[in-house]
Amino acid sequence: QLVSATNPTIVFSDIVNTYHLSYSYDSCLRQISLEWDTVKTSDFHSTWKVAQYILHQDEGGVISSVSVPVTENEYIFENIKENTQYTYWLETRWQGQDSASNSNPVEKFTLMPQSPDYINAVSASVDGADTRLKFDIAPNSELSSYYLYKSDSYNGTYNQVEMITSENNTIETIDYNSNPDNTVSYYKLASANACGNETTVSDTIHNILLTVDNEEYVNTLQWNYFKNGLVNATYNIYRITEGSQATLIRSFNNYNTVHDDIEALEGQDLTGQFCYYVVVNQEGSAETSQSNTACVTLNPEVYIPNAFTPNDDGTNDEFKPEFSFLPTDYNLKIYNRWGNVIFESNSATEPWTGTDTSGKKVPTGTYIYLLQIKTPKGETIDKRGNITVFYP
Questions:
Q1: I need a labelling partner for 272 at 20 to 30 A (CA). Which of 5, 151, 213, 252 fits?
Q2: What pLDDT is recorded for position 158?
Q3: Within its chain, how far is the Cα of 205 from the centroid?
């Protein structure tokens, strides 16, 4: 209020209020609450009316503003960062006036234990019925509490499955309820401050689910991309056959399907169980993630032609059964229509060339074969049928 120095009874202006700003900081809720009121009260009624309140926030040098209704005298700033310098002041704009009033500034440094600058999801490896997880924590972290979250889809709802206490820069844990032979599970790790609030959240990682299907001698392998295909990775495919060690058979960059033609495995038994697993290397990382082991069982197969033409023209001149395995015992007999044996062999590599016991070519007609073999696993197989001989 301005008065005359020579005559104090003369009033030259109305009463103008100034505003005092105060604050409170809740580190757990990550909030700074501001309140303001008049510094001086008076019985005089001011004709100056508030047109607008504007709160200004300086967040580590970044200034932002928010308008507050004139009926309010408090405001809450959310999502306050840790270890950051904050400054606030209230600007009051008056009705019918060009000028504005500013309150006192208030300052607060939000001191809290340092959250990690990053959390990297490193690996998710299947170990039998479990999934082993590994995360790297930024070395600047001063926190020791972490939440492990899990979801059944990449963009689905993540539920907390474990609370981990660790001061290490590497966190390893095991999900004992992952069912990795049938299910893809997605994981994130989040740091938590002293209030239990999340601060830093990792990227998403998941197990690699491998499936294998068989058609004749081709096993088709398929798997889901590592980290949902958002990173470059190398996929190394290993095969395990009965009685042998795992063998690397293929390596691919950013590829998730393989056709393994096992017929090309010359000299090997093509029956029994064929198992596979995938080992993933993310580009730029020495860590690996391993899939589940998926298997397919091939039954013994015997292929017997029903006709041949032993005319020595170099095409279809021989009759010989084919196998998906190497028989341990073998006996093939050929009978004519009178029931006489005209050919017999105990060697799986010896064909019938269409001759009888005297070495003469047999006439056109239908003959009977009897095949008795034993597989490497001791299974006995008997086959009986007809074979037609003709001369084109």
A1: 252
A2: 97
A3: 4
